[in-house]
UniProtKB/TrEMBL annotation:
Residues 83-117 form a coiled coil. PANTHER family: ZINC ION-BINDING PROTEIN. This is GRF-type domain-containing protein. Pfam families: Zn_ribbon_GRF. Residues 12-21 have a biased composition (Basic and acidic residues). Keywords: Coiled coil, Metal-binding, Zinc, Zinc-finger. InterPro entries: Znf_GRF (IPR010666). It comes from Cuscuta epithymum.
């Protein structure tokens, strides 16, 4: 598995994810691979497996959510992303409201003009 590197003190998402993945070792004492189930009843579920699979498989297996630190960090990141997305949507809606209020005032002015002309 290739891990992102860099000199940033905060670290990018890929660097944080890579460092988190490196904290899980298979029975070969090699950093395990983070994989996703592609089919079957657990499709989409994430797990850690032997880093040397399939060539020299040590049968290491762990569901990601069974690693509480990783699972909670991912859930926290998901919630943070959701909050960020909702804040952006709120800002967009507020901008639309301002535009609609301006449009409403223009329409009222036109109605007044038509009443005066009538």
């Amino acid at each position: 598995m290739v891990y992102a590197g860099g000199s940033s003190s905060r670290g990018s998402r890929s660097e944080i994810k890579a460092s988190r993945e490196r904290s899980v070792e298979c029975f070969h004492y090699v950093y395990s691979n983070h994989r996703t189930v592609k089919n079957g009843p657990n499709i989409g579920r994430q797990f850690y497996g032997c880093a040397l699979w399939p060539k020299d498989d040590c049968s290491y297996f762990q569901w990601v959510e069974d690693n509480p630190c990783v699972f909670l960090e991912e859930k926290t990141n998901d919630k943070g992303n959701l909050v960020e997305q909702l804040l952006m949507e709120k800002k967009d809606l507020e901008e639309k409201i301002v535009k609609l209020e301006k449009k409403k005032e223009k329409m009222r002015a036109k109605i007044k003009e038509f009443r005066i002309l009538a």
